[in-house]
Amino acid sequence: MLKNKFIILLIAVSSALNGCSEFLDEDLQGDYSSSTFFKTKEHAQLAINGAYQPASFTSVANALWVFGDVASDDATKGGNPGDQSEIQFIEEFNITPDNGYLEAIWRHYYEGVTRCNDVICYVPAIEMDEDLQKRIVGEGKFLRAYYYFHLVNLFGEIPLKTQPALTMDDLHVKTSPVEDIYAQIEKDLKDAALNLPPDYSGAEVGRVTSGAALGLLAKVSLFQEKWQKTLDYIAEIEKLNSYSLMSVYRNNFEVAYENNQESLFEIQHLTGQDPFLGSYLNQWFSPQHENGYFFNVPTQNLIDEFEVTPGGVVDPRLDYSVGREGQKWMNGEDFDPSWSPTGYLQKKHIQPLAEVGVGIKGDGDLNYTFMRYAEVLLMKAEALNELKQTSKALIPLNEVRQRARQSYLFDDTLEGSGVIPENLLPDVISTDVVTVRKAIRHERRVELSLEFHRFYDLMRYGKDVAEQALSGTNFSFDEHRYFPIPLSEKDSNKAL
Questions:
Q1: Which H or E run includes 87?
Q2: What's the number of domains the chain is made of?
C-alpha cells in the first residue's frame, strides 16, 4: 500500500507562510521572503502541502478528539488522575477562556486558514499549468472550508478571514454570524468541487477530490437543515460512481486498507519521517503497558448503545471499535479491563505493535478518516426522513446495517463466521418519521463512534437531546452550545 508524502512541508517554507500574520514588523527570516515566494509551480505545491498540515494529528495542538468525543457522551478523558486536567474541565463543562485546549485548537485551525488564504490569494498569479493551478486553489478552498467547519461548530460566531494579513489592521477582525461563516464554507466547497478531480493515482492519492468537496457540502447542508440541498449534493456524489461500503467494517481503520473505496476524505500520516508526519493518536489512546497514555476511553453509555440479539450476539462494530473484557486486544492478547478507568479502550486510531513498536508509539502510521461513504448514506437517510420520504430513507439506513451484520459473511476472524446470527441488526421497517429519526441517530452513533463526530451531532439535535445526553455534567445548552473564544484571541484581536 502506497503511503503518501505530499504533506511534507519544508520548515523554512512553513516559516514563510506564517510570516504575514506573525512577523509583520520584521523582515522575514529563512530561505524565502514574501518577495521571493509564490513565484513558481514548486512554490505553489509546497504552499498547498503546508496547508494540509494543520489538519493532521502530528501535533497535540490538533486535539479534535477532545471536542468530538470527550465533550460528548461517547468518551471520557481517561489517562491518569490529574493528567491533562484541562481536558477534564472541557468534559465537565467547567470551561474558562484560558483553557489550553481551546487556545491550541483555535490557533492551530486558524493557522490552517492563514495558509489556505495565502494559497488562494497568490497561486493564481503564478505562471504555471492552468489545470494544476486551478486544482491547487481548489484544494486550498476545500481545506479552508474544512477548518472553518470545525471552528464554527466549536465556537459559533468567529472572525471570518479570507485574505492574507498584510498590515497590523488586518489582524483585528470582528466576528461574523454563523450563517455568514457557513455561506463562505459553501462558496469555497462549490468552487473546489468544480476544480478538483474525482480521484488521483500514485503518490497523489490522499489529496482532496471533488467527492470530498461534495461530501462536506452535503454535511454542511445537513447541519443547516437544508434537506433538499443535502440530497442534491449526495446525488452528485453518487454520479461519480467512486464510492461504496467496504465488505468488512474494521478494514476502514487498518493501514492496509487506507484510502479505500469507502473513504471520501482522510488525513494522511506516515511514520519514520523527518519532518515528523506520524500520528500521535496511536500513543495517546493506547494502554500504558504499550507506552500509551490511555486517553479518550469509551463510556458505558456508548457500549450500551450497541444492539445485542436475544441470543447474546452483539453488533460486530462494538468489538471492531472497542477493547473490552472477554475479547482479544490489538496484538492478540486477552484484553484486561484494568488498562482503562472505564474498563474499555477504543481501537479505531490504534495500531498493533507489529506495525508501530513501543519505542516509536507516538509516530503512528494510520490515517484519520474524516468522512466515509457510510456517513453519506446516513445523511441521505436523515434528509429523506426529514422531508417525510421515510420509506425511501429506510433504503440507505438499512444498507449501513446490512454491511455491519454481513461482516459475518466476509470476516473469518469472527466466531461463527460464514452465517449471519439470527436477529442480528434486522432492517428497520417502521415508516413513522419520529421512530425512524431515532433509528438514524442511533445508527450514526454506533457507526461513527469514536471518530470525533458525536459532540457536533448532539449540538445540532438541539437543547433537549444535548442536555439529556450530557446530564452527568455541568452542561447547559444555552451556556455551552459554543465554547468561549480563547482569551489570547480576545487580548490580541481588538475588533472583538
A1: helix 85-92
A2: 1
Residue 325 lies inside a defined structural domain of this protein: yes
Beta bridge pairs of residue 371: 265
Going by C-alpha positions, the residue among 35, 111, 62, 69 that lies closest to residue 445 is 69
Q: What is the mean pLDDT of residues 193-221?
A: 96
Residues of the chain by 3-state class (helix, strand, coil), percent to 5? 50, 5, 40
pLDDT in tens, 21-60: 332 334 444 456 667 899 999 999 999 999 999 999 999 9
The pLDDT of 176-201, averaged and rounded, is 97
Q: How far apart are CA 158 and CA 485, in angstroms?
A: 8
- Cα gap 469→301, rounded to integer Å: 9
Contacts of 289 by beta carbon, 8 Å cutoff, 6+ apart: 339
Instruction: Provide the residue range defining the domain that includes 350.
Output: 295-354
Name which of 22, 12, 31 is nearest 166 in CA terms: 22
329 in a domain, yes or no? yes
Task: Confirm whether 323 is domain-assigned.
Answer: yes
Q: How far is it, in rounded angstroms, from Cα 114 to Cα 30?
A: 19
Please indicate, yes or no, if residue 315 is contained in any of the structural domains: yes
d(CA 69, CA 271): 25
- Long-range contacts: 459-462, Cβ < 8 Å, 24+? 459/153, 460/223
Residue with cell 490552517: 112
3-class secondary structure, 309: coil
113 closest CA partner among 193, 181, 59: 181
Q: How far is CA 127 from the centre of its chain?
A: 34
Task: Give me the phi and psi of 293, to 5 degrees please.
Answer: -110, -5
DSSP 368: E
What's 173's DSSP letter?
-
pTM: 0.93
Cβ distance 123 to 50 under 8 Å? no
Between CA 291 and CA 90, with CA 87 as vertex, the angle to 5 degrees is 155
Longest dimension (CA), the chain: 71
